[in-house]
Each structure stands twice: as structure tokens, then as C-alpha cells.
Design goal:
Number of helices: 3
Number of domains: 1
CATH topology: 60s Ribosomal Protein L30, Chain: A
CATH class: Alpha Beta
Structural class: alpha+beta
Radius of gyration: 20 Å
Strand order of the largest sheet: 1-2-3-6-4-5
Helix content: 25-40%
Distance between the termini: 50 Å
Strand content: 25-35%
Length: 145
Amino acid sequence: MKSIYVFPVVLLFLFSFSHKPGREVISCNKAPKPIGPYSQAIKCGNTVYVSGQIALDANGVLDTSSIENECRTVLQNIKAILEAGGMGLQDVNKTTIYTTDLKQFARINEVYKTFFTTLPPARETVQVSALPKGAHVEISVIAGQ
């Protein structure tokens, strides 16, 4: 009868040494809740993957009054999410910017460079035909230490 109890304990012991750390969902109330079936961010090991953010404030209100305001709100949301995951903007290695109008590229850069003042991350900027909720810019990042 003793072997019945020993087997599960041995399996649990072996699993604890062979199991790789899983993914952790990162969320914070200083950024908008996801508008679909996704997480604000996922932390896997020492890397945080932040989902694309648009200019929704924490209450879900979209400000499209200017491309500068949109970029600022997006990057503030990203900063808050990264901090919830134990990182900061200085840990961002890669960004992807989606915009509905590449003619706004210079204006986007003016705001962007105020958030990434030293060692800016690798990046691409892509024009798309539309973004959720009528936004004009969306940014996602990958951060790691």
C-alpha cells in the first residue's frame, strides 16, 4: 500500500526539476484593458512582450485629437505595462509602430524620441489601412534584460 503514495510524490519531485518556468500574464490598471481576447503583456523568462497599444486611456477613452497625443498616450500605456512586469522603457529592445499615415512619420518621431532618449531600440514603422477603434497609431514592444 505504501507504493501507491510514493509514486505521486516521486513524480511531483521529478516534475519540479524538469518543468520550465511558464508564461506570466502582465496587466495593470494604469493602461487600458484589452479590447479583445489578448493580454496587455506576457512575461516569459526575462522577456516581456507588450501587445499593440492604441491611444486609449485607462478608462477606455480614445484621444485622436492629434498624432502627438496618440503617440504620447500609447507610450505612457506601454511604460505602465512594462513597469507592472518589472521593466522599463530602457529595457525595450524592439518596437513596431503601425500608422494609418506615413506622412505623420516625423511627428511620430518627435514624441517617440522623448520616451527613448538613449540607446533607442530597434524598430520598424509600417503603414496600415486601418487600426482598431479608428486610431491612427499603434505600438507594440519587446523588452528584456
